[in-house]
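Lecture 7 notes: from sequence to structure.

We start with a single chain of 147 residues. Read the sequence below before looking at the structure.
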Amino acid sequence: MSTDDLREIYQFREALEVQLVRLVVQRATPADIADLEDLLNTNEMGPEELDSSVATGSRFHRALARIAGNRRIADTLLNLENATLRARVLGTVRVRETREEHAALVEAIRLHNMQQAEELMRDHLEQAFEYLTGPYAVGAPVVRDTV
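Now the structure, written as tokens:
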């Protein structure tokens, strides 16, 4: 998958997931928020558990889609996730950063802060895209510190 392909997918994800998070902020119940927190707690692992971390991140985004209650968005996001799965699994996963970004998003949802939730989702997707296509991407040259 080319960088241009990933860029298009992440631009489309941003459009969908910002709308998705608006719906989540409006509709999330305390039980929904507890479910999201449970998913966050399962993502407390090291980078050696890449497959599990990628799966947990995917479950988190699918949980947001479930809470939003829009089946079409959920189906489309699943297709987009499947399209980028290879790049996400083969790349170096941002385990700690992703968990922190998801936790901040859950807090914005808990506070029903739509503007903050939208900004956090945009930032989260931008950071993921930059990481997948930046210096640590699959096939990128390895740069080691000399210190």
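Residues 140-147 have pLDDT under 50 and may be disordered. Keep this in mind for problem set 3.
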